[in-house]
Amino acid sequence: MGTGQEIAAPGGSPGWCGEFAAHSSRSSGLHVPILTIYAFSTENWDRPPDEVEGLMNILQDVIDQELEDLHQNGVKLRHLGCLEQLNPILQEKVRAAVELTHDNSTLHLNIAWNYGGRDEILHAVKAMLRDAPPPEM
């Protein structure tokens, strides 16, 4: 994030969250209209359980500690990925953060959390099959 410093996260992952949250509203001054952070892919579920829990805690902490500031600075949050695997409390926090910032327009911040190419294709095919008209017999 420009300082060359990272915040340690579980399992040695870069601690982008705290550093990013501190600087995200400044991106709007650079006229960056949309920013996407790829934070947690579906493959991350293969990590040791304590690392996964730590990463989930980081997301929850950022929402708890930084949401109001992001909102006040006009940042619109959007979640990319599947919420269903997250614990219900975290699902609700993500939904509430997205809803709170829905009308903001200074910076559109997409956070890809629990996303994956294969997973997205699978969800798209399932949706197409679910929504398709029944086959003619």
Task: Give structural attributes.
alpha/beta, Undecaprenyl pyrophosphate synthetase, 3-stranded parallel β-sheet, 137 residues, single chain, disordered N terminus
* Mean pLDDT across every amino acid position: 80
Widest beta sheet: strand line-up: 3-5-4
What is the assigned CATH homologous superfamily?
Answer: Decaprenyl diphosphate synthase-like
CATH secondary-structure class: Alpha Beta
* Structural class label: alpha/beta
Task: Give an account of the 3D structure.
The protein is an alpha/beta fold and 137 residues long. It has a single domain, classed as Decaprenyl diphosphate synthase-like (Undecaprenyl pyrophosphate synthetase). 47% of the residues lie in helices and 20% in strands. β1 and β2 form a beta hairpin. α2 (49-72) runs parallel beside α3 (88-100). The N and C termini lie far apart (59 Å). 17% of the residues are buried. The model is unreliable at 1-16 (pLDDT under 50).
SSE layout and pairing:
Layout: E1 7-8, E2 14-15, H1 16-27, E3 34-41, H2 49-72, E4 75-80, H3 88-100, E5 107-115, H4 117-131
Helix pairs in contact: 1-2, 2-3
Question: What's a concise summary of this model?
Answer:
Helix content is 47%, strand content 20%.
